[in-house]
Amino acid sequence: MIQKLLRLYITVCWSFFVFLLLTLPMPPSQTTGLQITYADKLVHFFIFGLLSYFIAKTLELFTPLEISNSPAIIDQDYKVRYAKLNSTHEFLTGFIEKHHRTVLIASLLLPTFYGLMLEYLQKSIPGRNASLLDSAAGLAGSLLAIWIYHLVKKYSKPKLLLHICCVGCGAFVSQTLAAYFQVTLFFYNPNIYPDNEYELRLAETKKVAKKFGFKLLIGEYAHEEWLKLVKGRELDREKGERCLICYRERLTRTAKLARESGFTYFASTLTVSPHKLAQEINAIGLELALKYGVKFLNRDFKKQDGFKKSLALSQELKLYRQNYCGCEFSQNAPARIASDPPANDQARRAGQARVAGGQRIS
């Protein structure tokens, strides 16, 4: 939301500047001569080109897509729901492409009509006169700005917000995706218990973000609120309803942040673990993608030995690997993750020393 308002503010301020620049009265002597005329055309080319670019960057964040999933889809067996959502997800891809075209058209038409209106107003302003050549110069600037905007969007790596559940999984997945996306890490795990375990995992995540140059966003740690979400499910088995509630809570927050911050994709490292329901996680991700209008990277990261590779990378980097998922209920379950004792001991001895970096999201 802050990014939306900031871009809107910049666009409005620039529009007002253009209005003042083109409507202030001028002495007649400053409106004659070929040199002044050519300079005037360059000014129109520049100011309307920038205006088109600012409008495009603002409109790309305002996607009018908010889909409420029907109970018929949500309540089905997750395998059936996954199949339906995977095919329905093509709608989102097509919508985003249409939205991009809409942004391009609007970024051309709005400055053009605005420029024509200002040229008309100049008829009644002392020292000014309406000129179709000025409008043509402004239109040329808008076309160039939109062309540059389109090429940047087409050939640059798309932005991806990666929810990171733990550093062991996150290091491998983020490195894998960095070849194809501009990856930003999002550490949001209110399920983790106790506090010192949360701080340890966060410190390790900061260390990896700093080492590989990833931007890190940190969500609010509200464990008490998370406990309210899973109340009555404390005795559920692992991979049961409590886990599904937990998946949905973390993915929902990730999807919302991705939408508000202008990311093209969001994803999660949750599917690396063989102890998680990858198909159910991806089904939830697809639902949220359709709801919030941002693409979900539908991947099972443990395939092609992803989990083994994440273990190997953790050992190489001497990262801490926990032996339980995160919450106090999974902590009481038998250990299922093969830990690397030397790396774990080293991380434990490091205590709660914080690594610089990371932006907290409230």
Describe the protein.
Helices cover 60% and strands 6% of the residues. The protein is α/β, with parallel strands linked by helices. Strands 5-4-1-2-3-6 form a six-stranded parallel beta sheet, with helices on both faces. Strand 1, helix 6 (167-177) and strand 2 form a beta-alpha-beta unit. Helix 2 packs antiparallel against helix 4 and helix 6 crosses helix 11. The chain is elongated and about 85 Å long. It starts with a helix and ends with a strand. Residues 31-35, 65-82 and 335-356 have low confidence and may be disordered.
Topology (SSEs and partners):
Elements: H1 2-23, H2 34-59, H3 71-74, H4 78-121, H5 132-155, E1 159-163, H6 167-177, E2 182-187, H7 195-212, E3 215-218, H8 223-229, H9 241-260, E4 265-268, H10 278-292, E5 295-296, H11 306-317, H12 328-331, H13 341-349, E6 359-360
Parallel strand pairs: 1-2, 1-4, 2-3, 3-6, 4-5
Brief sketch in words of this structure:
With 362 residues, the chain is of the alpha/beta class. Helices cover 60% and strands 6% of the residues.
Feature tags:
about 350 residues, about 5% strand, Rossmann fold, alpha/beta, 6-stranded parallel β-sheet
The CATH architecture term of the largest domain is 3-Layer(aba) Sandwich
Please indicate the percent range of residues in DSSP E strands (runs of 2 or more): 5-15%
Termini separation comes to: 12 Å
Strand order of the largest sheet: 5-4-1-2-3-6
Uncertain runs: 31-35, 65-82, 335-356
User: Which geometry do the CA atoms define?
Assistant: elongated
Quote the average pLDDT.
Answer: 82
Radius of gyration: 26 Å
Class of secondary structure makeup: alpha/beta
Number of distinct beta strands: 6
**Total individual domains:** 2
CATH topology of the largest domain: Rossmann fold
Order of helices and strands: HHHHHEHEHEHHEHEHHHE
